[in-house]
Amino acid sequence: HFFKSHEGSIFDGLKTRKGLEEVRILTDAVSYLECRLSDAVVSGDHVVYFGEVVGGKMLKGGEPSFHVRDNGFNY
User: Fold this and answer.
1) For residues 54 and 20, what is the distance between their CA atoms, to the nearest angstrom?
2) pLDDT of residue 70
3) Which long-range contacts (CB under 8 A, 24 or more apart) does 18-23 make?
4) Residue ranges per domain, the chain?
5) Burial class of residue 35 in the structure, from the number of CB atoms within 10 Å of its CB (0-12 exposed, 13-18 middle, 19+ buried)
6) N or C terminus: fewer CB in 10 A for the chain?
7) Whole-prediction pTM
8) Which of 24, 27, 50, 53 has its CA nearest to residue 39?
């Protein structure tokens, strides 16, 4: 799924607003954090991004959604 081509915006059809850093925030989310990029480190064939939290909010009650991978790890 990492290499799927996608026409248009990945946010098409989702309710969003722009946050502090002009990043899209999903308005139907349970909560969100906004981060400012503080570093990017190349590790093998990946780039690991580090961010400083500069904002965030609990939007509504409820359980957050998460994805359970086939290997059992959650994210």
Assistant:
1) 8
2) 65
3) 19/55, 20/54, 20/55, 21/54
4) 16-58
5) middle
6) N
7) 0.61
8) 50
